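Running low. Invent one:
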Amino acid sequence: MIKANENVDFFSKKMFSRLLAPSLISYIGLAFGDVADAVVVGNKLGVTGLAAISLALPVFMIINVIMHGFGSGGAIIYSRLMGEGKHKEAVSSFNSVLRTSIIISVILAIVGNIFMEQLLKILGTVPKDGDLYNTAFEYINIIVTGMPVIMIGYILNYYLRNSGSEKLASLGFTVANIVDISLNIIFVLILEIGVKGAAYATVIGQMVAIVFYLPSILKKKNNLYFSIKGDNLFNTFKCFRVGFSSSVQYVFTFIFILSVNNILMVLSGDVGVAIFDLIQNVSFLVLYLYEGVAKASQPLVSTFCGERNTSGQKTILTYSIVSGTIAGGVAILIIAVFPEFMCNIFGLIESSVLDVGIYALRVYCTGALFAGLNVLLESYEQACENEEGAFFIALLRGAIILIPVTFIFAFFGIKVFWWLFPITELISFIVFFLWKKFTKKEKAFDKERVYSCTIANSFEDMEVLMNNIDEFCEKWNAEESQKYYVVMTIEELCVAIMKQFEEKDDGRIQITFIANEDKSFELHIRDNAVLFNPFELDTNKADEDFNFDMDAMGMLVIKETAKNFYYRRYQGFNTLVVRI
């Protein structure tokens, strides 16, 4: 006997597995790309080079707020709309987000170049600092000028990953980071053009990524393409609002880095700032693994939200935590066991600097696991469009806990200061957990209005399914004609799909059937048959010899009675959405 919500997660693990490897590869590449500047510059210019890059970090935080806000928020809205079968609305939203982010980034680049000296003063260096000022000026000037390119590259990557082109997104991302690392070596170590070479490498890397992405987006037949038409400004900034619930952390990081750079200049001069940059860069090697897992799960969680598939959402969260803990745990262990090697990679070899670096890295590792869990939870809340939850955890670890702990620990000297990292992450995790447990939750969509099951390639299962659907329709007061069309639609679609399984032993069809409050019904079907869009069957009328396909005739009736319908091949499976 089939029951609601039985075996509904048959597809979840398979879909997650398809996304995980490309996403992890992308973010491993990103981690190495982001640390390349510090590694190469540190080995060439030592403490001064690392300190200059650390001073530039707040500029990257400003860029991150905008590009991750529009990119992640827009991609989440895109996935949800696609999950609801609203393809045109999803594409329109993408084009509006892209245009708006380009305009904003160009304006910021112009303003940044005009007021470069004032910007550097805010970041913590003035002309009298000599080499440190000049080095920071050269690096930041190029990054600010290349801001539009960096934003476009990342935003396109977000959307391609959510549109089902995760392999292309991963390839472009990986190649971009390989180019970044290679050019760093060529420009800084071989041609010896200093930090300017590191900055050029970063911008050129994203140019290469955009070149990889464009051919796919220029094809209008794809799920994602350029269009003159766009969404209204209100909906565009709604995308940013969803993304900002998570990208707000970069605002807090901006404040945090400015504060820490100034504190460390007082406590231990440029050595302390260089060690801080070391920790920031090493943290990329850990947290980007968690980010890679989070980005693999986000499109699925957003899609399942559109389908009202709560079981699938929870399954993906579980897989994310397990995968993230394994990948991140290995990185944390390597750093904790070989901290001296990590310091040497970044050019810190003097014994006095080395001792501080080794201690600081091991302290960081004690709380890195909780940092990763916080990243996964924040991403999950955001993917569910629970802006309040995502914003709260970002607020905890980026401001409410972090900033007070930073200033308190500064009073106890440089050795105690590094403990701010694990203490902040641990307290943030505990507070968020308690907040989720005890706060009153807003009334969600009534789970009783959702019927979910997965059936095998079996007509016995089909018979039980149809009985359950009939009872479900009666429960929610469907009109007789409506009930008839619902039963007919599900039966026709499932039978047509079963014919595509042929001799396949593990053929499965996932049905999610929703009774909306407006008395309409919404059907979501996912199957693992070969590529098959039942709505493309030839629905021409029978000829004079009565030659026609009965399945096609059934599809014709569904097309004529449904409010709307939509098909796409997503993560290796056929996906259908029908509203009745």
User: Anything to note?
Assistant: Confidence is low (pLDDT under 50) at residues 1-6, 542-546. The first helix runs from residue 12 to 83. Residues 336 and 362 are 5 Å apart (CA to CA).
